Amino acid sequence: MTQNEEPETIDFGEILGKIKNGKRKIIVSFIISCFLGIIVAFGTKKQFESVSRVLPSSSSSGVGGKLGALGGLAGLAGLNIDLSGGNSIPIEIYPEVINSTTFKRELADSKIYFSTIGDSLTISQYILHEYKPSLMEYLALYTIDIHKTVKAMLGSNNDQSNPDPKVLSREDKEIMKFLKDRIILDVSKKSGIISVNTQFPDPAAAANINQLTLDKLAKVINTYKNQQTYETYKITLAAYAKAKENLESANRELANFLDANRQIATASGKIQEEVLRDNKQIAMEVFSSLAVQLEQSRIQLDQTAAIFQIIEEPLINNAVAKPNKKLILAVFMMLGIMIAILIILKEELIKIIF
């Protein structure tokens, strides 16, 4: 730009004039956007939401202390045992548990009541035979997800010829995806509260699946804890047997020494007697502590502790969670107007940018 050239300025009057002259384009774009918004809003299947919040029953400090004490006693009894691990599944991997194929298969085989059809079915039966995809789901299958659709169609013949239950069939994959999209588990790192959110086309089913998810997650955790408790019991039993053997050995050694030395006159003899009595005392303390620990382990094997403390139980909510039709229509209307204005002012925008 030379000294004689004036800097370009934006003429807002001209811009407003072009927008006014292009109002027909704006109206057409607005109508098309409204039409698309109506298709999306009314072509998306209604989803009902159920939310639950629970707090895991924490006994890690008490259990950790007992296991730490047990490890020290087992060391005194002559056993080298590592008891540093916990006896529960870390809450951080709960989402991985509910998204596992084994968990979702067991969930899909559960029978629940569906209010929209007035009957009880397994979740897999509902997904495969009763659920009707919405218009938007059909459009997604043959547009955005066309590669997945083609892959599923090509793989269906192989699924029919392979009856191995360890191999996921096309129907299995469909069920797994359906559940994964509709069951969300979130763990708060600060509070440790677990939130389970389920969304389903049936309000009763949403609440029932939420409760089922909690129940089956508690079952998985309880099974794991029982296995760990049994392992602890076996370790304690082995340490108890070794401590009993050490106590009997210490008693024999002290008795034999006293029988052989009824009148101890030398200092070395008295020192040896004190050492043997100390060994016996230590062996007695270890044996007594392990006897108590063994009894506690036996009691724990017979107990079924509550896994979760309920903060908010899953309820049937008849209010539609999705789609938010008003919001969808408002967004499409705004997009229609904005797109029309951008088309009208494309020359000015190009000049400003370049």
Write up what this structure looks like.
The chain is an alpha+beta fold and 354 residues long. The chain has two domains: 11-44 and 324-354; 45-322, no CATH class. It has helices at 12-21, 23-43, 60-76, 94-98, 101-108, 123-130, 135-141, 146-161, 170-182, 203-260, 267-302, 325-344, 346-353; strands at 47-56, 111-114, 119-122, 183-187, 194-200, 308-312, 320-322. Strands 1, 4, 5, 6 and 7 form a five-stranded antiparallel beta sheet that branches. A two-stranded antiparallel ribbon has the order 2-3. A hairpin with a 6-residue loop joins β4 and β5. α3 (60-76) runs antiparallel to α11, α5 crosses α9 and α10 (203-260) packs antiparallel against α11. It is elongated. It starts with 11 loop residues before the first helix and ends with a helix. 18% of the residues are buried. The model is unreliable at 59-67 and 79-86 (pLDDT under 50).
Top keywords for this entry?
354 residues; 5-stranded antiparallel β-sheet; alpha+beta; two-stranded antiparallel ribbon; 2 domains; 64% helix
Class derived from helix and strand content:
alpha+beta
Which parts are unreliable, with pLDDT below 50 for 5 consecutive residues or more?
Answer: 59-67, 79-86
Rg of Cα set: 36 Å
Q: Can you give the helix content as a percent range?
A: 55-70%
The description of the largest β-sheet is: 5 strands, antiparallel
- Terminal Cα separation, in Å? 15 Å
Q: What assembly state would you assign to the polypeptide chains in this entry?
A: single chain
Count of alpha/pi helices: 13
Count of spatially separate domains: 2
Beta-strand fraction estimate = 5-15%
> Rough shape?
elongated
Mean pLDDT: 79
Number of strands: 7
State the order of secondary-structure elements, H for helix, E for strand.
HHEHHHEEHHHHEEHHEEHH
